[in-house]
Specification:
The protein has a domain of 208 residues: PurM-like, N-terminal domain (60s Ribosomal Protein L30, Chain: A), CATH 3.30.1330. The longest helix is centred in the N-terminal third of the chain and has 19 residues. The strands form 4 sheets. The chain has a 7-stranded mixed β-sheet, covered by helices on one side. A 6-stranded mixed β-sheet has the order 5-6-7-10-8-9, with helices on one face. A 3-stranded mixed β-sheet has the order 1-4-2, with no helix packed on it. With 306 residues, the chain is α+β, with helices and mostly antiparallel strands. It contains 4 helices and 18 strands. Strand 5 and strand 6 form a beta hairpin. Bound molecules: 3-(2-carboxyethyl)benzoic acid (3EB). 3-(2-carboxyethyl)benzoic acid (3EB) binds next to strand 9 and strand 13.
Length: 306
Amino acid sequence: MLPAPMRPTNIQLPGLGVEQDALFEFDFHADPGLLSAAPLVPASAERWSASGARRSVRAGSFVGQCTDDYLFLHTSKAANATTLRSTSRDLYAELLEQAQKLGYHQLVRIWNYVPDINAGEGDAENYRQFCWGRAEGFDGADWLLPAATGTGSADGNLYVSALVARSGIEVRHHENPRQISAFQYPRVYGPRAPSFARATYMRSGSQELYLLSGTASIVNHETRHADCLAKQLEETARNVASLAALYPHLKPIAVRCYLRHAEDQEACLRAYSTTFPGFPKPALLHSALCRSDLLVELEAVFAAPN
Ligand code: 3EB
């Protein structure tokens, strides 16, 4: 007998309307266009919903949906070692220009999936080229950096998905006291530092949502426990706890766990159950990570318990 299909996890974006409609959905098993990472265990989809009527939008290289409060844009583009910097720069410049033009001025969450993310030596590494181009895309524009994820893509494409809010939504970005801000990482990590905040909080009336960036075993700016999955997960849990402490009344409702080595999945789930008590079962995704010494990275959504 087939297992019963899992109900998607509903992530409700703060907004004043009552009617909720799906704005976008990450279906880990059927949606390779949004998420270039292979699911390791059956995981329920994330259904991000917002109040108000939803319209489709096409904006330059991006497609997506919007409501009065939110704009979700998505694109993917083939890129390699020689084109990644300029492709990232152009896509980011375009994203910001299009969002601006459509009247959405607050970035709240970005997902980046970078092809062959650890290929290339030193500053030529694909992730560093991506960070360089992304930073150039932000240059001269007046945006606050939001929570983000930056991990490997499973094919030759760079995937960028962005959620942007209208100015009526209250948006606050946060840094982690245990970590140096990614946008201030020292030069050893590349010519331009990664452009993201550690977490983004959103509120409208009494509705709140708190989005944690991809979080890994990094303290200050250094990777800890380079070769130990369990210890990396524990360090990650301390980083998550330190961000969660800013909004102690909010609880985790959705978790994605990006795992470098598929063969670590059982060990990872076992370690997770003790390291993240009270957290929901994670969507476990097989994906390379932005530093070659990282084995695991985790992102989480927190909301008020209902
Ligand atoms: C880190 O803390 C781990 O480049 O967009 C996490 C989240 C990481 C987002 C990004 C990278 C990004 O540096 C890597």
